[in-house]
Amino acid sequence: MRTARKGNVEMPAFVRQLVKETEKRVSSFFKGGRGGAEPTEGEAEEVIPSPYLDRPVLDKLTEEGCSRWGLNYALGSMQGWRANMEDFHNCVPQLGGQMADWSFFAVFDGHAGNCVAHYCSQHLLTQILTTGAIGPEDDAEKVRGGLIEGFLQTDKQLHTVARREGWERGGTTVVATLISPRYIYFANCGDSRAMLCRAGQVGFSTEDHKPFSPLERERIESAGGSVSLQRINGSLAVSRALGDFNYKGAENREPTQQMVSPEPEVCVLERSLADEFLVLACDGVWDTITNEELCAFIRSRLCVCTDLREVCSQVIDLCLYKGSLDNISIMLLCFPGAPQLSAEALHQEAELEDLLESKVAEIFEELSGRGEEPELLSVLTMLASTAIPGLPPGGGLQSKRNCIISAYYQLKEAHQPSLPNEVGGPEKPI
Ligand code: MN
To answer: What distance in angstroms lies between residue 242's CA and the mean position of ligand 1's atoms?
Structure first.
């Protein structure tokens, strides 16, 4: 595998965002803020610390495994540009006892702290199983009810803990799937999303719960809230979540009728031999890529790569390069019908990488020939306006960025013979 992460790569989408951030800080400085200092109680002008880092945290957490019945899965998770990591997950490839052919997976995207997301990742499945509705008889209506009840019970228990621990501001979205021998159950609460690829296409995806969706808005307004800037009371960007108890205090209303509802939308699909793979991911993924693009991209990767962690890693890099400023988590679950490694696809991929390397070399030489310094950003920009056949569907040029960067640094090293020791920077200690 080729990866290169030398130096700080310029990324236009991020630069724009960072300029915005800087402007905010500068204007707050001139208004009398104190750039970055902790706000003091009672001060008129509160300075909110930036939710973004100066550089992204690129370390990835990965995990993989398989179930007894033939499901292979992997997870990839990265903090990215956010100041904190608030995503959590739960992979249970087989439930206990008589339920060993059932699997459960969930992604939790926390906000305003990570305590609530962490708590839910530890307790949601237990609460679902405690309802007693999940059993070998696989009664779809009963299981559906059990999933909803499990979410509501988790939120109730969480409220007690949150009051005790002072987590009332925090919340988490959840997207989960329970796979039985007969059905796939999807439970979604918030704006994370599940997407199923069936017979080569997007066969199903969950609906995001945003405050501006008509039904969500209706509930928010009847609970005494408003929707502005696409947010509840101009602040919270999601309309269903576990936690967020500051939005759940309207009197004489059921928990499912509050501004923020903990009720998941549950969908049940009968399994099919045409099922290829299922993705669970947080909005850090979906903000930068559509269902169709991700479906096509993952299909193309499965034909050239058997390591599902590597596929998740490539999706994360793609989202980062496409401008995601959020924590990024993706879970990839492959059914027995998933695309397999193909000699033809491998051959095409190798040809594509050779082509990219030679294009990078051409541009590098052209810039050097004009007496210009061949900066990576100029090389990438020129490459983007070049017709390149055979780029991965759904991923395009950005999905081959690691290959391009690697080719670029090889050229750069070849053009800059290393300096003698006494002039050079840090060298090996003698
Ligand atoms: Mn997020």
So the answer is: 14
Q: What whole-number distance in Å separates Cα of residue 319 and Cα of residue 79?
A: 12
pTM: 0.86
Superfamily of domain 58-334 in the CATH hierarchy: PPM-type phosphatase domain (3.60.40.10)
Residues found in the chain = 430
How many whole angstroms separate alpha carbon 119 and alpha carbon 170? 11
In the predicted structure, residue 7 carries a pLDDT above the cut 70:
no
- Alpha carbons within 13 angstroms on the beta-carbon side of residue 383 total 29
Q: Which two tokens stand for residue 155?
A: 């939120």
Render pLDDT for 10-30 as a digit per residue (tens, 0 to 9).
444 554 454 455 444 444 433
The three-class DSSP label of residue 73 is strand
Q: Residue 137, Cβ neighbours under 10 Å: how many?
A: 7
Residue in this structure with the two tokens 């595998």, named with its chain if needed: 1
Q: How many CB atoms lie within 10 A of CB 40?
A: 9
Residue 76 to residue 401: CA distance in whole angstroms: 18
Expressed in angstroms and rounded, the spacing between residue 282 Cα and the centre of ligand 1 is 6
Distance CA 83, CA 112 (A): 11
Calculate how far, in angstroms, residue 328's C-alpha sits from the geometric centre of ligand 1.
7
Helix orientation angle between 343-369 and 401-415, rounded to the nearest 10 degrees: 40
Contacts (Cβ under 8 Å, ≥6 apart) of 154: 120, 123, 124, 127, 242, 262
Neighbours of ion ligand 1 (CB under 5 A): 109, 282-284, 326
| 31-53 per-position pLDDT tens digit | 333 333 344 444 445 677 788 99
Residue in the structure block whose two tokens are 């803020």: 33
3-state secondary structure of 290: coil
Q: Give residue limits of the domains in the chain.
A: 58-334, 343-415
Class of the domain covering 343-415: mainly alpha
